[in-house]
Design a protein that fits this description.
alpha+beta; five-stranded antiparallel beta sheet; 2 helices; 27% helix; elongated; Cystatin-F; signal
Length: 141
Amino acid sequence: MVGMYAWLLLLAALFGLSSQEVTDSSCVDPPGSQCNISKNDPGVQKAVLSGIYTFNNQSNDAFLFKTLQIDDAKKQIVKGVKYILEVQISRTVCRKTDNADLKNCHFQSKGKLHQIFRCHFEVWTVPWLKMMKTTFFFCRP
């Protein structure tokens, strides 16, 4: 019986350590609930990039889009971290065929090619598996 108790304590300690990697002090709500998170959080920035790459890969536009502004960021602990993001994206001057780095792509100037979308991205990440996936997105002009 003591052996079983020791195993349970060990598992509880390990779970506590692994969950500390996923959560931070700004999100103390129970697992499964959404909480606001800083738009500057590194996890948010990576999740936004994942959403942008998914949008660019699935759109028929000849040009790449990149983040103009992050309007809202939330996270939810669900077998990893789910980021729920409201983001404005804008068309750049870089064509998809250029294989350009988004950091080096400037936005289209005001005019015929200038376009902004408001997007909702949901990105799921499992840090201990080094996995990140955009599970849902919706964009509108």
